[in-house]
# Entry
Amino acid sequence: MLWAAGRPLSVGVLAWAALDAIDGPLVVAALGAVVAAIPDAISDGMASHAGRRLIAALVIAALVYAASLVLDPIGDALGTAVRQRITGQLQARLLSAVTAPIGIAHLEDPETLDRLASAEGSLTGYFAGDAPVTWVGAVAGRLSGVIGCAVIAVYFWWLGVLLLLMWLAVRRIVLGAVIRQATDLRLQTTAMRRGRYFFTVGSRARDAKEVRVFGLARFLAARHVREYSEAIRGGQAGLRGMHQRAAACLAVVAAGYGLALYTITDAVRMHQIGLRSMAIMLPMLAVTAAAGNVSFDDITLARTLAGLPDADRLERDLAVPSKLAGPPRSEGAAEPDVAAAAAGLPCEADAGLPCEAVRFEGVRFRYPSSASDVLKGVDLELAAGTSTALVGVNGAGKSTLVSLLARLRDPTAGRITVDGGDVRELDPARWQRMIALMPQDPVRYPLSAFHNVAFGAIEHASDREGVQHAARLAGFAAVVDELPNGWDTVLSRELPGGAGLSGGQWQRLALARALFATFHGARVLVLDEPTSALDVRAEARFYARFHEITAGLTTLVISHRFATVRRASRIYVLDGGVITERGSHDELLAAGGTYATMYRVQAARFGT
# Structure
């Protein structure tokens, strides 16, 4: 990761680590030289050779110490630069991994979400970008301790070796507990995600109305604290175990240091070593601790690295190329011509366009966590170039059917065909680009109004006239005229100069976005409750322009508003996971079934 962040930056980090490794022993040695020069300077005077030697030793010690003070801010600056680059690279890897699958089931899988949170580090606060410099700094520290042991070994070889072995043993014992504690943190990610959810709901403007009106502030804060307390409880238990090991190691270190102090002072007493050697060896004992001590950097590093296998696992499990993907479109090939296809002219069969029809044939679907099927054998036809409506009670499976149509999920039984061929034999990404979706709750991008519409066909964002035409058809052009900066207005009150939209205005924008997609190749227009957030006048205008909006497209309308549904060429009633009725509006009214009952109940509200 460090090398990928940039070669000059990597060389700088390694050079900093080398200086950091020798810095501690050099400072101790320089101070030892100062101490050794003091007696002769006092005896002979500062003007003597001994005095000049003391001054030189003081200057050298000051320079070495000053250099040691500079190393820390240099390391911080290098760490910041590395963290920014690696964090960006890792987030790009994770985003590529989770967006690689053609479906969305993995985004509802708790294990995948836990791995994503662990790899990214946002919940725990331990980011992979911190790992390289932390690791290099830890290695430099241990090398500094080894150098300290080597200096002791110059005077007493057996003592230097003994101290080194002691510190390596201590590190091995304590570090094992640290790594286990960091691994346990990975298992607490689910609780942390729940805690983060309650924090987000309580601090987001979009949810603020309900939080205030229903008095949920204390509840959210209490749940946030409870979930995080649950998450860290296991970690605290691990820390207690680690402290017990550390206490045991303390006795070993005390014995080792006691032996070292006795050996050094006895050698001085017996005149085996002089003042300078003693002045170097005594503080050098503290330097040797770096060879095996376990610091907070080790905990940080262990927790940081604990998330990286999750990143590798996500890439391995999710970034799997589809074996059913069709051949890619040749460069420069023309976009599918909607008008030509609607006029009955030949269209490309391998493009996934419904020249004839899209059919659901005995389609069944069950969510992995469910005990029963949501769809229980659906047979439905979307004739090319016509509008089809789907009605049903809440929970009937309408949204699930749309996700199957767009290949966000695949049926557990049955099949979906496009012009007679199984949709799974088509390139899934290309088929999804044939679908323009207006969801009931559209994505609200905190970008300009223009980009929010142009995202329907982002590769054609230069088609400004097309964006404006789509806005006029959807009734969004009037909204743009009222925005402070027109098309350049950022659609978020949380950003400088931004503006917010009402629910109905966002719905018109979503329709414009879907229509812009149909201008550039999309052939299937899916309208999910297209008027649910519109006022009566805007809804009436939508009804009046329904045929103009959907002309030449294969349209699927999902709505509880029968004023919209009745304009479709063919209507299906979905009840209990199966299609119970089908036909035109007049045919279904004459049949007197579920549709007729639902229609008359709704129509009664608009009596004389």
Remarks:
- Residues 321-346 have pLDDT under 50 and may be disordered.
- Residues 333 and 437 are 24 Å apart (CA to CA).
